[in-house]
Amino acid sequence: MNGENVSLSFRGMVVGPQDRSTAPPPGPPGTEPAGAAGDGAGKTSRPAAPLLTWRDGQLLRAGRPHRLLAGSLHYFRVHPAQWADRLGRLAAMGLNTVDTYVAWNFHEPRRGRIRFDGDRDLERFLALAADEGLDVVVRPGPYICAEWDNGGLPAWLTGLPGMRPRSCHPLYLDAVADWFDELIPRIAAAQAGRGGPVVAVQVENEYGSYGDDSAYLQWLRGALADRGIGELLFTADGPTDLMLDAGSVPGVLAAATFGSRPDEAAKALRARRPDEPFVCAEFWNGWFDHWGERHHVRSPDSAATTLDGILGAGGSVSLYMAHGGTNLGLWAGANHDGTRLQPTVTSYDSDAPIAEHGALRPKFHAVRDRLLALTGAAPRPLPPDPAVLPPRTLDVVPGAGLLPALSAMAWPVASPYPPTFEELGQPSGLVLYRAEPLVPAGPHELAVHGLHDRALVFVDGEPAGVLDQENGALALTGTGERVRLDLLVENQGRINYGPLLGQGKGILGGVRVGRRLVHDWQVYGLPLDEWTPGDLLRAPRCAAPDGDRGFATASFDVAEPADTFLALPGFGKGFAWVNGTLLGRYWEIGPQATLYVPAPLLTEGRTTVTVLELERFGPRLELRDRPELGPPEEYVETL
To answer: Which of 33, 52, 64, 560 is the most core-located residue (most Cβ within 10 A)?
Structure first.
């Protein structure tokens, strides 16, 4: 089939080469035409003219010169009881706007089960921002990166056979259309033209570093307009020719993302869009961390110098991050450097001006001084740092051993082959694969093909080794008898950036003893982040204590809840819950040594900590009065 003549149809629309020539022409500066490229579902009347526009290289708000001084704060990384506090701290820094992504998989982790309540109540977050006098920039994706699991795309979506995300693939666009039907009207109702705080909406996210399907971007632009978005639309890409060529959309403001050299970024944007204002949609004033690496920091002087350059060039800016928050549960994503997987840690502190637990860093004051000098605004009172519990040591009560407990926590599924997470319909967590192969006498190689990501191997209940994507085989000595083979596979976070986005988890190939594949499996799906408090109460008791790995609990009394930081000295690798809420992963390789426990997770009286340890129990748990995120390393931009 000749690709130049291919077109794809869905919902009565044709997407193909003809769309590139018939796309709606660019509107006047600062406006976006009604999207003829949308699918028509969920159309609403066009709202009032956008609050933010531009003319002659100047950003305007209600027709007056304006600087967008924003900071990123993701509602899905902050406990909802702390949203108002964190927004107030952001405003106290001198910012006039808050910037947030919307993580699709956070709202729809299972297909068709969409939630906008509790910690997913986006509309409440937008209302709280308005209460603080902040404008809001919303970045609905559908892809967001954000070091978030699968870049925000649901695992059920990318796991569909033949799926091609971030393109005009019909299956993908149909799913996005359904999601946008639920999401976008909520954002549209909160636009400035309707009395709300939303002043700008992003089209996709850094698409120029991924693909060059311009029809896809035009479709997204139309899908937003058809569902009522009338405020300023923008794209955001790295300031290189490669990224800007593929990520920009005619008639849509082109913004840049970078951490240094603002003069070069401004030059690149103005060479392409001389009439548009210079906007840095992400100024990387800090950075995130991977397990097994060092903790990235950026000095206040370094960050402030680059901020001075952006402002000195007449630019608007969004600090990424202003407040990083936490990858609670199993939402941390992963990168891949071409050789190995790089899982992201539980903390998303990012060395932001407002620390993970809300404390104001020296970087906060350095940024605040510059913003107040620029705007001349009266400074807001500075909030005190959040209260913290005094340090204490907690005794550990061992519970059920690892394999007996996990095999009692789920009903097994029989399968002739080891199914993937996607085939099990499980987004995250662990899967326990069990078989009883006949192993001939003598030495053999046990190999796992397509292992994603890490497996603890047990033979007849005894640990035999650890496998991962780089090392997928170990030696096995047989006696001519059948053995019980257990492979406990951990999904360490789905890749959130680059061409491996959407890659599957679990055992993608097969398990081999010598030359022979192993069949006849019993498979236990263990979605840890979906376990209820009742499951956790049952888990430590579901089998007798056994060995030095498995479940353990600790408890302590609290007179008045406050923040604390959980440390697990001597423990190897695992997961920790507080009062039934999964904090996330811990791992002795660091850099992160403590898990942030927000005060709203504690209750007056007894608090229970539950630990699932995969490798080795430590002697005790500790509550510490400050975070320990690891040995620091100065962040250096490599774009």
So the answer is: 52
